[in-house]
Amino acid sequence: MQGLERGDVIRATVTDSRGRMVARQVEVVRNVRETGGQYGGQYGGHGDTQVLRGRVSWVDARAQVVRLDAGGYGQQVDVRYDSRTMVEWQGRRYDVRELDPGDVVRVDARRSGNTWFAERIWVEQNAGRR
Description:
Elements: E1 9-17, E2 20-30, E3 49-60, E4 65-69, E5 76-80, E6 86-89, E7 92-94, E8 104-112, E9 115-125
Parallel strand pairs: 5-9, 6-9
Antiparallel strand pairs: 1-2, 3-4, 3-8, 4-5, 6-7, 8-9
């Protein structure tokens, strides 16, 4: 498991060993390096949930939208959120409106038509404003 990196999506077979879950087999479903850190890819175990990645461009609190710059060629994606959307950074929870431009995030999102809805957001790299 030395080659695993933050952002890799895995599937694991686990057993309970005295109250601790121990991985017996680990399969990399999606390697973060192969996707170039861009959005997309099925996130195992959540059915219709996808993983979106990118750098926060802006947050519109009134419209409840976060715009992500998702990597090369000017790709951008708007992700809607609501009061149930959680943001986590270094084990703490934050309000979505506290995201800063430049924060690098991973988003569990579901799609409805052409619209993405964020369920949970993890800050992977802070822009240094907190």
